[in-house]
Design goal:
Blueprint: H1 3-10, H2 21-33, H3 47-51, H4 58-85, H5 87-90, H6 100-103, H7 108-129, H8 132-150, H9 158-178, H10 184-211, H11 227-249, H12 252-257, H13 267-283, H14 291-297, H15 299-314
């Protein structure tokens, strides 16, 4: 056996010193457990800043970025704890068994340490650099996600309500971080659209279970027989979000924010198209992940988003406008 063979089999260098490879692999596995790709959801914190056209305010933009960083640290800790709690059930899942802790690529002890450090960093940034209201909402986010991991994810309908609520909570927290007022239009739209996307996640899991001959989603209180109900409720919730958006376009707020508000009506068919397509793909078993993460990688979704941005720009947004909450 050659020195290289010995190094490969034993994980040591030819001179007997431990190889750095196992440590490097564990570090990479731990980083994977924090799910950096999921952090993109925290960009919702910046939505109130964008909607109020205050991005040019350097102080508010800095606060928004700090809030994003704090929420990413908090999310990282939450995802690690969630994977540790789900480790046994993940090992029985066809794809989740490949997660770092379920597969054994990352140690439980290291995961606990990293999660604690991430949470401490999140609340240190928040407490020292951001308004106390944001810190309170960050604590609420941590409490809700912990409750979801421990119990709520197994409760029928409650789980999707909580998932939709967590997305909306990010928007509320972002508004508090940058000190801009929230609109009821934005809150209503976010609740309906994210409820639809939460149902997409459960629907995809049930479709896959049905394909494999199962009767229920693994670790969730949903059965294959519930598919018809979800097919009705899920898309309907998304379409209600579009209705809210259309009512918003008729408000005085939009006339204050845009020079040509009538142009924004072109966004409505784009929303209808994208939401309907998501449900078609879920039915065809082509939605293998969270709908938002899917959209970030899907060319049609990206094109739809680009077209929507172009429409908004064509509507002539007025810079530096702060609107009220009504």
């Amino acid at each position: 056996m050659t020195a290289n063979d010995l190094k490969h089999v034993t994980g040591t260098k030819p001179d007997g010193q431990p190889s750095a490879r196992p440590a490097t692999r564990q570090i990479l596995a731990l980083l994977q457990a924090t799910r950096p790709h999921q952090w993109t959801k925290n960009s919702l914190l910046l939505l109130p800043l964008l909607m109020s056209h205050q991005v040019g305010n350097l102080q508010k933009l800095t606060a928004g970025i700090l809030a994003f960083i704090a929420m990413c640290f908090c999310s990282a800790g939450v995802y690690i704890f969630n994977d540790l709690l789900d480790m046994e059930s993940d090992r029985r899942h066809p794809t989740k068994r490949l997660r770092p802790f379920a597969s054994g690529r990352a140690s439980v002890r290291a995961g606990i340490v990293l999660a604690v450090v991430a949470l401490i960093a999140a609340f240190a940034i928040s407490a020292m650099l951001l308004p106390w209201r944001f810190t309170a909402l960050l604590a609420l986010y941590l409490a809700l996600t912990t409750a979801y991991s421990l119990w709520l994810k197994t409760r029928l309908l409650v789980d999707v309500m909580v998932l939709a609520g967590l997305y909306t909570l990010r928007i509320i927290a972002g508004a508090q971080a940058v000190d801009v007022p929230l609109t009821m239009w934005l809150l209503a739209f976010s609740m309906f659209v994210f409820l639809s996307l939460a149902f997409v996640k459960r629907y995809s899991e049930l479709i896959e279970a049905e394909h494999l001959g199962g009767e229920e989603a693994c670790g969730r209180n949903y059965r294959v027989s519930d598919l018809r109900i979800i097919e009705a409720v899920g898309p309907a919730s998304g379409y209600l979000a579009v209705v809210v958006f259309c009512n918003y376009l008729n408000s005085d707020m939009v006339r204050n924010l845009y020079r040509h508000p009538q142009v924004l009506w072109l966004v409505a068919p784009l929303l209808l198209y994208w939401l309907t397509r998501v449900w078609f793909l879920a039915r065809r078993r082509a939605m293998h992940e969270d709908a938002i993460l899917f959209a970030l990688r899907d060319r049609v979704s990206i094109l739809t988003a680009v077209l929507s941005i172009l429409v908004v720009m064509a509507a002539g947004p007025r810079a530096g406008i702060i609107v009220g909450a009504n």
